[in-house]
C-alpha cells in the first residue's frame, strides 16, 4: 500500500481513488487567487493539491526563435516562446509556503513537481510529503535520482515514454531509494483526446511494474477518469481552476469547482461499484427473490385434474416451484382441490 506519511490517505484498490487537483499556472500570477483555488479544491473534496516548482531560467533559455518558439497553430500556447510561457505560468517560490500552509489547514496534501535539483532542495526545506515527476521529465534520470534520494514517495507520469523508458525511470527511482512509487498513465497533449488515452494500459502497467497506477488526465470532462478507476486506477490527477472563463495557461483543459466535486463523487462511486467477484444474490437482493417468476395455479382445480397450459403458469411472485419444472408438471394430476392463486409445490401432485 502506498501511504503518504502523516496524512490519512492510503492509496490502494482497497480505498477510494486519491484525487489530485493540479493548480499549475491557473493562479494567473495572483497569490490571492492561488489560495482561493486551494480552498475551492478542498471544498470539492480532493485529497491533494499539486504545484509545479520551477522558474523560466531553470526550464529553458531566453530565446524567441527556432525550437524555443511555439509556432504550432494548434497549440494552446502558439505564438509564445518557451521562456515567456514559463514566466507566465510559474508559481513564485515565495508563494509555496503560504499555499502549502493553507492546504494543511484544510486537511489536503500539499506537494509539487520539481523540474531541477534546486527545486528539490527548496521543496525539501518545506518538508513536502511526496513528489511528482512530470511526463516531460521522466527521461531526466539525474532528477529522478535526486528526488528518490529524499526517500519520499514518488508519483511519476508516463506521458510519451516508451516501455523501455518507463522501465529505466522506475529502476532508477528504486535503486536511488524510492520505496513507494505510483505510475500515472498520461497522454501529453493539451487537451488530450479520449481516443488516444489508451486506458487499457493501466492494468498492464500495474502488472509489469508491481506498483499502484493512476491517471494524469488531460481530457475534457470526467469520463476518462471514471473509466480509469473501473480499470484499477487508484490515483486521478486533473488540472483545476476557479473558472475557465478567467483564462490562464491551462484553463482550457481544467475542471471548475462543481466539475471537480462531481469527479470526486463519480470516481468514488465507480470504485464502490467494482466490489469483488460475486455470483448469487447479495444480502440486500435476497428480499427481492420473492418477486421472481414461479409456477402458480391460475384456475381452480379439482382433485385428480391434470395440469394444463390453461391452469398452470409462470407468474410473479416467486413462492412456487421454479419455471424450469413447467414441462415436467404438464399432464401431472393434483391430489386435492386447489384454489386459483396457489403456488405449486411437489406435495400437490400424485
From TrEMBL:
GO molecular function, one term: N-acylneuraminate-9-phosphate synthase activity
Signal peptide, first to last residue: none
CDD domains from the UniProt entry: SAF_NeuB_like
AFP-like domain residues: 294-350
Pfam family, one: NeuB
InterPro entries given in the database record: AFP_Neu5c_C_sf (IPR036732), Aldolase_TIM (IPR013785), PseI-like (IPR051690), PseI/NeuA/B-like_N (IPR013132), Pseudaminic_synth_PseI (IPR020030), SAF (IPR013974), SAF_AFP_Neu5Ac (IPR006190), SAF_PseI/NeuA/NeuB (IPR057736)
Gene3D superfamilies, alphabetized: Aldolase class I, Antifreeze-like/N-acetylneuraminic acid synthase C-terminal domain
Cited PANTHER family: N-ACETYLNEURAMINATE SYNTHASE, PSEUDAMINIC ACID SYNTHASE
Protein name: SAF domain-containing protein
Lineage: Bacteria, Bacillati, Bacillota, Negativicutes, Selenomonadales
